[in-house]
Amino acid sequence: MAAPGQSQRPTAGGSHGVSERSHEPVLQQFPEAEWDEAAGAIIAPLGQARALAEWLLGQGVDYCSNVTGVDYLEREVKEKVTGEDGKVETVTRTEPGRMDVVYHLYSMRKQTGPLVLKQRTGREHPQVQSLTPVWRSCELQEREVYDLFGVDFTGHPDQRRILMWDEFEGHPMRKDYTEPFDYEWEPTPHDEILDKHQRGKVIV
Amino acid sequence: MTTPNTSPGIDLDDTTRAELERAGVIVSKVDTLYNWARGGSVWPLTFGLACCAIEMIASATSRFDISRFGSEVFRPTPRQADLMIVSGTVTKKMAPQVVRIYNQMPEPKWVIAMGACAISGGPFKQGYNVLKGIDRYIPVDVYLPGCPPRPEAVLQSLNYLQEKIRTQDIQSDPAFTAGRRQYPVPEFTGTDLEPPYNPEVWQPPANPNAQPLEEATA
Amino acid sequence: MSSATATAPNYELIQQDGLDTGLLEVSMGPHHPSTHGVFRMDVKLDGETVVDLSPVFGYLHRNHEKLAENMSYLGSMPFTDRLDYFNSMTNNWAYALAAEKLVEIEVPERAEYLRVIMAELTRLVNHLSLVGFFVNDLGALGTPLLYAFREREKILDLFEQASGARMMCNYFRFGGLRNDVPEGWLDRAREVVDRFPVFLDEYEKLLCENEIILSRTQGVGNLSRDLAISAGITGPMLRASGERYDLRKVDRYGIYDRFQFRVPYSDGDVGDCYDRFIVRMLEMRESIGILKQALDGIEHGPVLGNAPKVFKPKPAEVYGRVEAPKGELGFYLIADGTPKPYRYRVRPPSLINLTVLRDMCLGQKVADAVIILGSIDIVLGEVDR
Ligand code: SF4
Q: Is the pLDDT of residue A52 over 50?
């Protein structure tokens, strides 16, 4: 069994994608963990993230590089479903909103990685386990996720706002954050450029 | 050097002055002498906010050498400085400190808003934590555009400032008459700064997007 | 030399008869000449000794990530310049690397070489300035910094000739570079690179065995290797603590596998301020070696690959990282099929390297806290973004 985080040495050209197999031992050890193929990430089972992280650390994954949050709003997904009679129908279903906390893990000693670990929680009162006791590098980054996304990390030694001031209300990196009314608002050139991009015009 | 002749009592035209100078007599006003000396020794505050600060430092190093214009003495404390170069993005979190530092500077004091960010928020204008120009809270003497402005531009802005200093009138300029100018330090609220600008120094421009009243209500 | 621990030492105030002593709380910053920008440390002092320290961030939080999520992919490129404003070229590279993973783009040979040349020149600029500021913090006001900036100008001239801007180069594009370097640029670059060791010799002679520098930096700000790894420290700071981890060797992104170079690191388990200083000095020598090889190997050809005219990647998640002069600079992008990134995240080496600031400063003198901060090498544009 290959140790987790073990992958082929990244090839030249910088294309060191998520290695195959590196997640398999994790899934064997934690059968409740899910593997998100599209994102190339392990979804930690609820409430077991800390245990999983400690196990990973024991396997040599000693370096947590990047921690961040991702906010997914509730959205409608259109899917094509083949019914029993062979007809293809388009079904709309609502995907509930969620909040992900993403960890990019490497092994410095073995020089392998990355292994992407996600903790998934709801948008309303997001709460996940803090991995700061396992990797110190999460300390400031989890504080940042708390500040900008409002995710509550249980077990974090010093959870305070880090970038905004203490009295600040709201979590500005959330997708539905609206700034206070600004009487001077004016469209930026970016909107125009974006529009042209969408229409296929090129600006370099 | 031309100086507007505003003070009463001295009424010499340039020809007379030149003739006198040829005869070895220099006639000057206190204003002119004072401003000449002051303009040649503007001491800036060591005050870097963001990227522009690096170009400000570069203007003090050997290639550009701001000391040719008498401003090489960067003072770390506001109480010894004449000039505040606001070099970089002023965030809402930083704005109260900038005003506080300005308040601590003795008169006469001047401000250069260096870079697009200090003038208007620049590339980061749409950010939720970025102040759209430091001139909302403190009066600015010279606006220096650029992102970042080149060190040569820093020198030029200093020259403009010196020109401005030379035309100051000791008897009427607020730098000399108004005592130490201090402006209220904004406070943090849940979303923004309170007040969002200081009406004494800045008023919002007319809103070009505003609709006439009838249309809005109709 | 013991490694610093995460907890404050058991502390008792010195009580003497008739003398009332107490802890002094000092807020250093956000406007402080030694904090390299608008950074603030709330320090608790007993006399001169630091007994507690907490960094305060956010005075330069410019909402880079939020802005980037509201504009096209290429639109963020100039904003990456302003992250770590000493090193716009490596920032560009990290972002281009991440975006190139979203869409398979071949980077032409000449562009790869030029990328390496630009990145290594940037490394020279960064380490030079850092050493200048660091010695400035030590009390050598001005002179070493002026030396460093004199050399920096020569390199900035090269940047300006290639990209049109001194600092904010905005030179990289997805799939290559914006434009080729002008005629004669490579010769001028070679001239600068060839002369650089002469300056470096002089600089080393002045600084590396300077009595004052030795006594003020050795044994100050110790960081053990285990703590460094756990705290995600990267870059020269990690290598000064004894871990030989350099993404140019580990990931071998770009064409770094074609060059011969060594990775300077200190051979102990603990690194102090002097180690961090020396590692950077040595890295400059290695960079010159890489530059010489790259300038020899470069050939004619296009500099921009067949990048799609409209950058609209399919839904995917990527993480691209490079060895920036300050450490691992990474970009995490989530594409959702639109021309805007759904999530855009910068992994800032400066911020994460500050995790251990408190550990390193406890028990030191307050004047040493300034040196320790200087040896970490932070740029506030990147710490707060
Ligand atoms: S104007 Fe440009 S260079 Fe200056 S602080 Fe703002 S972003 Fe940085």
A: yes
Whether C23 and C156 share a structural domain: no
pLDDT score recorded for residue C117:
92
Identity of residue B209: N
The CATH number that applies at residue C309 is 1.10.645.10
C41 shares its domain with C74: no
Residues C155 and C30 in one domain: no
Output Rg (C-alpha) for chain C, integer angstroms: 22
Amino acid letter, residue C308: P
- DSSP string covering C236-305: HHHHHTT----HHHHT--TTGGGS-------SSSEE-HHHHHHHHHHHHHHHHHHHHHHHHH-----SB-
Contact C62 B130 (CB under 8 A): yes
What is the B114 CA–ligand 1 centroid distance (Å)?
8
A147 backbone dihedrals φ, ψ, rounded to 5°: -70, -50
User: What integer pLDDT is reported at residue A185 of this predicted model?
Assistant: 57
> Is pLDDT at C333 greater than 80 in this prediction?
yes
For C343, nearest residue in chain A (alpha carbons): A70
Give how many domains chain C has, as a whole number: 2
Nearest-Cα residue of chain C relative to residue B95: C59
Which chains, if any, share at least 3 CB pairs under 8 A with chain B?
A, C
C62 to B128: CB separation less than 8 angstroms, yes or no? no
Choose the weakest-confidence range: A26-30, C24-28, C131-135. Answer: A26-30
What does the pLDDT average to over A27-48?
81
Ligand 1 centroid to residue C384 C-alpha, Å: 14
Q: Atom 2 of ligand 1 has which residue's CA nearest to it? A: B147
C37-68: pLDDT as tens digits: 788 888 888 888 888 888 888 888 888 888 88
Contact B128 A186 (CB under 8 A): no
Asked whether residue C268 falls in the same domain as residue C250, the answer is yes
- Do residue C128 and residue C45 come from a single domain? no
- What confidence score (pLDDT) does residue C1 get? 35
pTM recorded for the entire structure:
0.86
Exposure on the CB side of residue B91, measured as CA atoms within 13 A: 26
Does pLDDT of C80 surpass 80? Answer: yes
Non-local CB neighbours of B23 within 8 Å, separated by 6+ positions: none
pLDDT of residue A5 exceeding 50, the answer is: no
The domain spans of chain A are: 24-72+98-163, 174-204
**Which of C62, C147, C379 should we substitute to test contact with B (largest number of B Cβ atoms within 10 Å)?**
C62
Residue ranges in chain B whose pLDDT is less than 50:
1-3, 5-7, 216-218
Based on the domain organization, do C152 and C23 belong to the same domain? Answer: no
Exposed (0-12), middle (13-18) or buried (19+): which is A169, by Cβ within 10 Å?
exposed
- Verify whether the Cβ–Cβ distance C61 to A136 is below 8 Å: no
Query: Which residues does a 6 A CB cutoff place in the pocket of ligand 1?
Result: B 50-52, 88-89, 115-117, 122-123, 147-148; C 82
A85: Cβ–Cβ under 8 A, 6 or more apart, which residues? none
Say yes or no: domain A24-72+98-163 is CATH 3.30.460.80.
Answer: yes
Residue of C146, C139, C186, C144 lying closest to C162 (CA atoms): C186
Q: What is the ipTM of this complex?
A: 0.85
pLDDT tens digits, one per residue of C279-303: 999 999 999 999 999 999 888 888 8
Range of the domain at C69: 64-384
Q: How far is the CA of B118 from the centre of ligand 1 (A)?
A: 8
Which residues in chain C have Cβ-Cβ distances shorter than 8 Å to A56?
none
Report the phi/psi class of residue C65: left, alpha or beta, with left for phi > 0 and alpha for psi in -120 to 50: alpha
pLDDT bin (cut points 50, 70, 90) of residue A44 is confident
The yes-or-no verdict on residue A17 having pLDDT over 50 is no
Indicate whether C6 pLDDT > 50: no
CB atoms within 10 A of CB C234: 30
Q: How far apart are CA A63 and CA A52, in angstroms?
A: 14
| Residue in A closest to B128 by C-alpha | A179
